[in-house]
Design brief:
It is found in: Endosome membrane; Late endosome. Pfam families: Roc. By secondary structure, the chain is an alpha/beta fold. It has four helices and five strands; from the N terminus they run H-E-H-E-E-H-E-H-E. It has a single domain, classed as P-loop containing nucleotide triphosphate hydrolases (Rossmann fold, 3-Layer(aba) Sandwich). Strand 4, helix 4 and strand 5 form a beta-alpha-beta unit. The longest helix is centred in the last third of the chain and has 19 residues. The radius of gyration is 16 Å and the shape is globular. 24% of the residues are buried. Bound molecules: guanosine-5'-diphosphate and magnesium ion (MG). Magnesium ion binds next to helix 2.
């Protein structure tokens, strides 16, 4: 079997991580994709990508493409573009910020609305940090 035939059997999954600034998006994505963690806060400018390849039972290769969205507000204009075509939309919240519970609810509503508009068969995931 040629390389291209093997590659065509790989599944791609687009995972978008959204949430308030400093709620742990980059830390979770880095920990997940690179098994690393940084204590120093460095604000994400624009967007970061992380790739992780996993093999599921049945020898099914899946490439997880994690979109770590920085500086994104709940009403942000770019949100639709980031969310487009995603199979997983997740919003992070941290227990260390007092405003976080209201925002967690708002993020889940916003993602539900965006998912209906821009995604097919999408899973929504809340990530507590
Ligand atoms: N102690 C602790 N610090 C964390 C945790 N997750 C994130 N941080 C710290 O919180 C800050 C913000 O995290 P970051 O992932 O950059 O947030 P983002 O703005 O949502 O991407 C960084 O200084 C991280 O080191 C955690 O689970 N425990
Ligand atoms: Mg970040």
């Amino acid at each position: 079997m040629s390389d291209s035939e093997e590659d065509s059997q790989d599944k791609q999954l687009k995972i978008v991580v959204i949430g308030d600034g400093a709620s742990g998006k980059t830390s979770l994505a880095t920990r997940f994709a690179q098994e690393a963690f940084g204590k120093q806060y460095k604000q994400t400018i624009g967007l970061d990508f992380f790739l992780k390849r996993i093999t599921l039972p049945g020898n099914l290769n899946v490439t997880l493409q994690v979109w770590d969205i920085g500086g994104q507000s709940i009403g942000g204009k770019m949100l639709d573009k980031y969310v487009y075509g995603a199979q997983v939309l997740s919003h992070t919240h941290t227990h260390t910020h007092t405003h976080t519970h209201t925002h967690t609810f708002l993020w889940s509503v916003v993602l539900h609305v965006r998912a209906n508009l821009h995604c097919n068969r999408v899973s929504l995931l809340g990530l507590g940090n």
